[in-house]
Amino acid sequence: MSTPCVRAPVTEGEATRQALAERDLLDGDREIDVVDGEIFVPVVDGDAARAAGYEVVVRDAAEREGTVSPDELLGFEPSYGRLGDVVILDEDDPERARAVADAVVESDVPCETVVNRASKVAGEYRVREWDVLHGDDTETVHREYGHEFALDIAEVYFSPRLATERHRVVEQVQEGEHVVDMFAGVGPFAVPMAARGADVVACDVNPRAIAYLRENAARNGVADRVTALEGDVRETTADYDGWADRVVMNLPHSADEFLDTAVRLAGDDCVLHLYDMAHEDDPFGPSERAVRAAAEPAGYEVEVFARREVRSYAPHELNVCLDVRIRRA
């Protein structure tokens, strides 16, 4: 049957499938196909997939046979996400959470562990508590755009929903660049940037995140280009003043508090990727004013060359990103 399919390199297959699933575009009744290094992922709405930035082609896609989905077992369609072989639920009712977990395990959804969110992200390390409903291991390996990331969801922060945004930024990196990732986590920016030939200094206050970062750099063959620094970036990077061609600032609730450090790290011509939370009435103004207040007194000219609404975070509140070039005047 002719079906709209998103076409992507096979190395980006799992990240593409997850991103489409999160947008409710994945056609789970059709088989995913791989041909000559390309993956074809069936979608329920080709126009919506194109609007989301994907390449869409129409081709024959076979119906899936012999698979059992959670909704068939439950009688309703549950909402869940996947991170590696961990299935993540967000259910307020414990009985409903248990029913969904049992259905996921009984279905053909591949998983080793099923967890339900038990708290909001909190604390200095931005982690949350989980109710483990199946399995006993919250450690997993997540695959994203051809790279592997080991992590424990109970010990580090990681959002698979930002895969497309991370890839957008990573694609801007040129071989030989000097990059500082100020809040690196387990390395989803740092590792692929190093794979593109950059030298990356990656910082995080969470010692478990730094341990996973080092493991992931080695796992992906870029340990020689990633320097992992444990601690507050304001205190660990004194040796890198004026070194950076690019600075990643992915700490949306408070990254603006670190702009003076970003400017200190910047070379004569540097790109900042600043993530922030902002009200929908003025999503970019506060961040732009903060960058100018930090960079212009230090002798930089400021050019905002991209403004991105990354996702909706809360009612009337957006997670946004500014791509900013600062140059010595």
Automatic annotation (TrEMBL):
PROSITE patterns: SAM_MT_TRM5_TYW2. Residues 80-328 form the SAM-dependent methyltransferase TRM5/TYW2-type domain. Coiled coil: none annotated. GO terms for biological process: tRNA methylation. This is Class I SAM-dependent methyltransferase. InterPro entries: MeTrfase_TRM5/TYW2 (IPR030382), SAM-dependent_MTases_sf (IPR029063), TRM5-TYW2-like_MTfase (IPR056743), TRM5/TYW2-like_N (IPR056744), Trm5a/b_N (IPR040601). One of its GO terms (molecular function) is methyltransferase activity. Gene3D superfamilies: 3.30.70.2580, Met-10+ protein-like domains (3.30.300.110), Vaccinia Virus protein VP39 (3.40.50.150). The lineage of its organism: Archaea, Methanobacteriati, Methanobacteriota, Stenosarchaea group, Halobacteria.
